[in-house]
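Journal club prep, notes for RB
We'll compare a predicted complex against what the paper describes. Inputs for the magnesium ion case:
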Amino acid sequence: MRLSRLLLPILKETPAEAQIVSHQLMLRAGMVRQSSAGIYSWLPLGHRVLRKIEAIVREEQDRAGCQELLMPTIQPAELWRESGRYDDYGKEMLRIRDRHERDMLYGPTNEELITDIVRSSVKSYRDVPKLLYHIQWKFRDEVRPRFGVMRGREFLMKDSYSFDLDYASARHAYNKMFVCYLRTFARMGLKAIPMQADTGPIGGDLSHEFIILAPTGESQVYCHRDLLDLDIMKEAIDYDRDLQPLVDRWTASYAATDEKHDPARFAGIPADKQVTARGIEVGHIFYFGTKYSRPMGAVVAGANGEPVTLEMGSYGIGVSRLVGAIIEASHDQHGIIWPDSVAPYRVALLNLKRGDTAVDKACDDLYASLQLAGIEVLYDDSEERAGAKFAAADLIGAPIQVMIGPRGVKSGVIELKIRATGKRFDLSPEAAVAYLTA
Ligand SMILES: Nc1ncnc2c1ncn2[C@@H]1O[C@H](COP(=O)(O)OP(=O)(O)O)[C@@H](O)[C@H]1O
Ligand SMILES: [Mg+2]
């Protein structure tokens, strides 16, 4: 993409309304624009990151055997009356009345809707287990939307739901999502720690929040330092095997949110291993048995014809929140440092002297080669001074910067800079293409 054509409203000043660094950087880098409190448009740069995160979430869900579907954002109130949550949910729920005076709502979550789908389409014990997910916008009329996309009113969530015949099978579904979540976050360069958590309005008795540590996090958390060094990706996972031993290993050390904190157990950890910190919740999983299936009648015929009420769990990932959370975890004073896996562009190509025929040609040639090789490049072909281009590239945070100016062209070299380390080196144009396409 040529920067001169991109809708990229970069801000020179830090907007006063943004309190935390991810929100400041997202606004400065022209990733999002607020349309009303807690509701954002995703501009092209932000949208690319959102889609990358979504793709990783999807790949890992699919790998775990979870099936994607898509439920609507607008739901009928009657389903929520069946579960008893229509009144319980309170003011966070955006209630809507249609032209026929029917009560509708903009979904804050989808337990009722998915239970309705499953109860009408799954009738026999042979049809379960089922593990289903969608990636869909949610609306929660938060009292205090803040921190940009971290606590929005409209936000994108991946939510999965499991339906099983008995506890053992439901626990296996829970464990699948547990492992799948750790892989998902690890692939985004995040150290997400699974912590015992409260179940809140979803209900139930088994729950983990996946938390990344950051001073700006909204949760107070406590954990064993060793959990920061778990190497998730080195485990070969077979989702059909018993995952309990692995889950037990990954939950052996103490980790809890404020609500579940046990000071006595925490005190038993060696002092230098005690971590007391703030954290950002990026995912949350729940097992809640028959909380929804019983009142809503999600029942199948068991092996001997007897009715079996399905055991359920639900599993959420804050897809849009992750954009902010990744920035909180990966930035410096100059801007964002995207992990490769979610970077909006892999390469920022800077033309340091637009209008210089040789420089323009060298840039255009490299841009063409990289485009052909399928490398995502943001080509800064704008009229800005070199200094402004350096600053913009650091702000936007593509993992690799390539700088071409008159001096380099004369001596036949291209300068590269690794955004994360600041390391710079020169390569010949051919070697640069080889390096960037490797
Ligand atoms: N207001 C919000 N803005 C952005 N993301 C949110 C918001 N509320 C929840 N999420 C994300 O969705 C995930 C699942 O939500 P859930 O646990 O049901 O909500 P909560 O933690 O508010 O009870 C959370 O882990 C979080 O990452
Ligand atoms: Mg939660």
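Talking point for the session: The pocket of adenosine-5'-diphosphate (ligand 1) is lined by residues 109, 140, 142, 151-152, 155, 157, 200, 281-284, 316, 318, 320-321 (CB under 6 Å).
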